[in-house]
C-alpha cells in the first residue's frame, strides 16, 4: 500500500465507533495499511477520502476484467516481481487466433475441439480462456458474424482484433454484451478506439512501437476516462519482447509508473512459423509477465504444458494446495472395503486416489488435515502423528461405515503405527507401500 497507517489515519473520521470491527480508527488504519481490512468496512469515511485511499491502495498493475459471468477472467493486479516475495494473483490468460474469414462449418468444428480442451488437475479444471477474432479483409459483416458465433456457441471470452474503427464497431455490436477486449488503439486511431471503448464500457488494448511510445497513448486514453487498458509494446522478436516485459513490470512496480501499470498482451502467433516454437515462446511469457498470450491454435500438446506451467507459477508458494479433511469414497466402497489414511496435501490426495481408482478395488480414503504437507513432511513436523491420526479416525465417522477394524497407513509413516494402535484399541494397523504407484498391487493382494 502506498500510504502508511498514520497517513491513512489522518484521512479517517476518527470517531472510534467500532463499527468496522476494531476498537479505534488508528487500529483500522493499521489494518488497512497491512492489507488486513477493506476500506468499505468504515461506514463514515468521506467520499473524498475514499477516492484518495482507493487510488493509493490500487495495485501498481491495474487488474482488467475481460468477459462476463462465471467465465470472466482477470489479468493484471500484480504487486511483486518474483512470486516468492508474496504471490502472483491472476494467471496468464491463454488465447488462440481466428481469421474472420473462416468458413462457418470450419469455425464450428474448431470451436468444438477447443471447447473440449479441459483438463482435471489437483481438483482444478484447467482450460484456455480467450478467442481472438482477427479482421483479415476489412469486411465488417464477416467480422461481426464470426465474433457473434464465437460468443453464442462457445464458453470463450473474446478479443476483437482490428485497426478499422468501422469493423470494430460491427464486432462490438455483435458481441459487446460479452465484454470483449478491443485490440488495438494506436497513435493513428486512439481517439476513435477510445471513444468506442468508453461508450461501451469495454477494455481496450494499446499498441505502440516501443515501451517508451506506450506512455503518451495510455496517458491520452486515461485522460479520456478509460481505466481498463492492456498494453502491447509492439515487439515481435523474442529477445526484445522479453526485455520489454521485464521493463514494463519494473516500471510499474519499482518506479511507480502508472502510465505503464497495465497488464500486457503478447502474440507468439506472430513470432513463429510453427506451433512448437509458439509454445516455447508462450512458455517464456507465462513465466515472465505475459498478461495475455495469443497462439495461432489450441492443440493438446501445446496448451496442456502451458496450463500446467501456469498452475505451478500462479499457485501461492506460501499456501500449499489442500483438500478438505474427511472421508472420500472411491469406487462405491461397502462395509468390507479397505480403509486408508493420508494427508490433505492436494497432490498427495490426487495421486493416491488415482492409484486406488486404477486398482479397481473400492476403498474408503480418510484425509486428515496436515496443513497441506505431504506425508513425510507432515510426519516430521508432527502434523501426522499417531495419536492425532487415531483421534481423527474415531471422530471422522468411518467406524459407522465399516464392519472391520483395519487401517492402512502410508509406508513413509510406519513409525506412527504403535501410537495409532494405542489410540485405537482392537484395530489392526497395516503399513502400506511407500510409493502410491504400488497401491494397486497392494490392494489387490489383500
Characterize the structure shown.
- The protein is α/β, with parallel strands linked by helices.
- It has 3 domains: 5-57, Orthogonal Bundle (3-methyladenine DNA Glycosylase II, Chain A, domain 3), CATH 1.10.15.40; 64-313, TIM Barrel, CATH 3.20.20; 326-445, 3-Layer(aba) Sandwich (Rossmann fold).
- It is built from 16 helices and 17 strands.
- It has helices spanning 5-9, 25-33, 47-57, 104-115, 140-153, 165-175, 190-200, 211-224, 238-253, 275-287, 300-313, 346-359, 375-380, 386-396, 417-423, 439-445, and strands at residues 64-66, 73-75, 93-99, 119-121, 124-126, 130-134, 157-161, 181-185, 204-207, 229-232, 265-266, 292-295, 326-330, 339-343, 363-368, 406-409, 428-431.
- An 8-stranded parallel β-sheet has the order 10-9-8-7-6-3-12-11. A 5-stranded mixed β-sheet has the order 13-15-14-16-17, with helices on both faces.
Write out key terms for the chains shown.
five-stranded mixed β-sheet, 446 residues, TIM Barrel, alpha/beta, 16% strand, globular, Rossmann fold, 3-methyladenine DNA Glycosylase II, Chain A, domain 3
- What is the share of helical residues? 25-40%
Shape: globular
CATH names the topology of the largest domain as TIM Barrel
Q: What is the CATH-assigned architecture of the largest domain?
A: Alpha-Beta Barrel
- What is the radius of gyration? 27 Å
The major sheet is characterized as:
8 strands, parallel
Q: Please work out how many helical segments DSSP would assign.
A: 16
β-strand percent reads: 15-25%
The chain-level mean pLDDT equals 93
Unreliable stretches covering 5 or more consecutive residues: none
How far is it from the N-terminal to the C-terminal residue, by CA? 58 Å
Overall tally of domains: 3
CATH class of the largest domain: Alpha Beta
